[in-house]
Design a protein that fits this description.
Structural class: mainly alpha
Strand content: under 5%
Number of strands: 0
Oligomer: single chain
Order of helices and strands: HHH
Distance between the termini: 67 Å
Radius of gyration: 28 Å
Mean pLDDT: 89
Length: about 80
Amino acid sequence: MRTTLTLDDDVWALLERVRVEQGTTRKALVNEALRRGLDRLASPPPKQEPYRTQPVALGRCLLGSLDDVWEALAVAEGEHHR
């Protein structure tokens, strides 16, 4: 099948670099890239384990209550925190 593709400049540059490195034709390289990419897109994504963070004890809060942000800023940075 024959078709026309419009490639972005960065894709064209990468295509040419790989073509020269492998010593192959653009047609063969585009077909191989499409095969690999479409196979990857058609297959289900790999199962990933949920990311877990380890808790760290930071000690008690030195500011008292953090419910009032302006009060916490005044304690941390002084009354002229603006």
